[in-house]
């Protein structure tokens, strides 16, 4: 495996701008970089403040897997022959035959993290003297539109190995791809507790960093019934003595529900459904999203089965385990009891009853929110077009809709569920979205994409894929049903 050259590369200047600059290097911009690399003459670079690629390190619990098949890697669903496919990663590491005999369709989560890091290191090592490729330890501070040059200006700070500012720089690009990911969500009633370190109140994103402390706690409460909450509850359960589990698992959802994983249900994560959703009126989309929670906020069947089996097994020798699993509960307020405990004030909506729970540690498996764009796009705010809820408007090719005076495009990756539906953050659509962006950017269709991807026909009007538009061509106002927002 190659390693990046530590020598800083010069940033692209105004005379030699990038065709596309990526902000953030998560799986989505990494997918875009991997598919962009083989296109002749296309100059791209991506910037990230972290020193290396890491994907949800606090949740790489032993035995956990992705919830999507390994084919949902960075490139395969757009280009199976790309050298940065998951299968080529296994071949490069002499692990293709063990993978073949393992007969596993869902890759271990830790292995997906290692695969993406391998791709990032290979692409970072491909940096040229012009400043293309991937640039870690580069914190993007501001983005502006330069109308005289018809270019985006990207101001960044290069960081040293300790994360301290080392030098300032500026890069220029004709187009941008924003993929800054999500941020852990902490409910307001628990925010003051999470910010004080005396008693552990942590988000699930940091679980492994605090695991030993949590295993030693007298009583642990897990809040949230998505996949992360289920995996953490199971991990704690497996490592606590039978009859002395002392675990509560609470959720405001009406049930510890299974993920919708039927074959036709999964077609909500296809480009066909994405086009259908985008064509719906804004109000309809906003009403639809909350009703689809079981498509992406529930628990996979195997994890539910394993939890139930673990609980059942304990009844054989120790009676009913010391666990309480309660759905339909909301945390109203919370406070500390001395220096070692927390008191949660609970509301059960169906019974209209209130209760209190004292615990010695809380894990917030309360999900993530799209990272706000306001800071990084502050200088571009006058150019942004917004919907009735003040959210950015996004066209079918994942471009922010801007004032026509801005001739460059800003693509949004992994954000924009309000316009593109539940599949927006799903890894399975990463390669297709990257190919769509590159087809639009180049106007040459380097990645031919299928016209149809689902057996389900969503709606009686059938939105068709838009043809690629040339690079830097300003999108027209949304006058067709496909572009209504």
Furnish the topology, listing elements before pairings.
Layout: E1 20-23, H1 27-36, E2 44-47, H2 86-92, H3 96-102, H4 109-125, E3 133-135, E4 138-146, E5 151-159, E6 165-173, E7 176-178, E8 182-184, H5 191-194, E9 201-203, H6 211-216, E10 220-223, H7 227-238, E11 247-250, H8 271-279, H9 282-291, H10 301-318, E12 323-326, E13 329-337, E14 341-348, E15 353-359, E16 362-364, E17 368-370, E18 410-412, H11 417-420, H12 430-442
**How are the strands ordered across the major sheet?**
3-2-1-7-18
What's the main sheet like?
Answer: 5 strands, parallel
- Terminal CA distance: 46 Å
Which oligomerization state do the chains in this entry correspond to? single chain
User: How many E-type strands?
Assistant: 18
> How do the SSEs run, as a string of H and E?
EHEHHHEEEEEEHEHEHEHHHEEEEEEEHH
DSSP helical segment count: 12
The residue-averaged pLDDT reads 91
Question: Percent of residues in helical segments?
Answer: 10-25%
Report low-confidence residues grouped into runs of 5 or more. Answer: 1-7, 471-485
Strand content: 15-25%
What structural category do the secondary elements indicate? alpha/beta
Shape: globular
Rg over alpha carbons = 24 Å
Features:
24% helix; 5-stranded parallel β-sheet; disordered C terminus; 12 helices; alpha/beta; globular
